[in-house]
Amino acid sequence: MFKSLRLFLKAIFVRWGRLQLKAAFSRNIPGEYGIALRVKILQKYFGYAGKNLRIYEGFKFRNLHKVLIGDNVVIGIDNFFQAGGGIEIGSETVLGPGVKIWTQNQKSDSLMEPYRIQGLEYLKAKLGENVWVGPNVFIMPGTDIGNGCMITAGSLVNKGIYPPYSIISGNPAAIIGNRIDDEKRSPHMQNIPGIAFQIPSGDLTFTTIPE
Predict the structure, then answer these.
(1) What's the CA gap between 183 and 190, in Å, rounded?
(2) DSSP structure class, residue 159
(3) Positive or negative, the Cα torsion across 142, 69, 137, 118?
(4) What Rg do the C-alpha atoms of the chain give, in angstroms?
(5) How would you write the pLDDT of the chain (211 residues) with one tens digit per residue?
(6) How far from chain centre, in Å, is Cα 165?
């Protein structure tokens, strides 16, 4: 009992200990008040957090100071960020319920040494702008997901580079389509910022326009 009390008292005198206590207090408060309270408490602890951030119930994290988030991002119910290697999330990205983003993994170089003493490998995870991440997706260290991608529910997204507007699905996840291919004949696609479209003979090519 006294040991637990000492650990508690030690935690409240450390900035990150106070953060965890505040996060635990606000974690499961429902409704718009809960969303506003979590943003108020947590926003200053991010490496960077843009405007109009929404954080739903159950959000858990490690190394929040290594998380960079753009504008209008939605962190869904029961999301978990393990950000030891760094997490970047672009503006307008939406994370569904149960999403986990991992940036560190257990090393396993030696067959003779226990896992616990082999240490960890840290790799950044990046999500571009306007990415939709479905429920219960697990994003692994070293993942680079391009703008406009869609990840279907329950997918396990391994280390790799996923081009813009990819449709990603499965365990392990694979690219099963491209949103541009699905909509390349739609007139509104001509107006997407940052993309110039050319459809010379039914095949789509695109060029990024420098901002």
Answers:
(1) 10
(2) S
(3) positive
(4) 20
(5) 666 766 656 666 667 677 888 888 899 999 999 999 999 999 999 999 999 999 999 999 999 999 999 999 999 999 999 999 999 999 999 999 999 999 998 777 778 788 787 887 899 999 999 999 999 999 999 999 999 999 999 999 999 999 999 999 999 999 999 998 766 645 555 555 444 333 333 443 333 333 3
(6) 16
Structural domain spans, the chain? 2-178
Q: At the topology level of CATH, where does 2-178 sit?
A: UDP N-Acetylglucosamine Acyltransferase; domain 1 (2.160.10)
The sign of the CA dihedral 111, 116, 120, 125 is: positive
The DSSP symbol for 34 reads: H
> Residues 88, 68: contact at Cβ < 8 Å?
yes
> Quick one: which of 114, 115, 116, 89 has its CA closest to 101?
89
Q: State the Cα–Cα distance between residues 106 and 121, nearest whole angstrom.
A: 6
103 and 83 in contact (C-beta within 8 Å)?
A: yes
